[in-house]
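Hi V.,

You were right to ask for the full record rather than a summary. Here it is.
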Amino acid sequence: MAERERETLPLPPALPRASSSSSRARATALVRPGPDPLLVICRCFSFVTSLTAILCVAVNVLSAVRSFKDGSDVFDGIFRCYAVVIAFIVVVAETEWGFVIKFWKILEYWAGRGMLQIFVAVMTRAFPDYSSNQKELVLLQNIASYMLLACGLVYVISGILCIGFLKRSRQKKETTREQAVKDLEELERRREELEQLLIAERI
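Predicted structure:
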């Protein structure tokens, strides 16, 4: 009987592991309350803006190809090439890639980003060809330009209202919170490993 009691002595330390995992879950839930609604809305709007800018790129590429192919207006083709490059910059700016923001600091501010989008929308809408064989292309130009114009106006108005500053502030808090969660999980993992080593030494 005494030997059986000694064999069952190492079993109780399993309880702290369960409690530590539950405490870790509670601590993680406290540190990570959930996604910020403002950041979710901003990401969705940024995605829509990127798709609209990509549509502008496609429309301007088609217009440039037709201009160079027909030879009707070479200057319009060159103009469309510039529109493609600037529209591509709009797409890259929406990713908020640190490398791009570092060299084009104005794209970090929503008012500057919106003005660039309005400029691309105007370039996409400029010099429409209303010939009967290009009605579909003109329709795509109108859709792409007006959609990007609307996105640009939203960005400019939001930038004036300092919503962009509020978004960047919340982004920093979210990054700090995620780093705190990672540090907490790493600390709990090391503590559990240490507890397992102590239990193994007792056994």
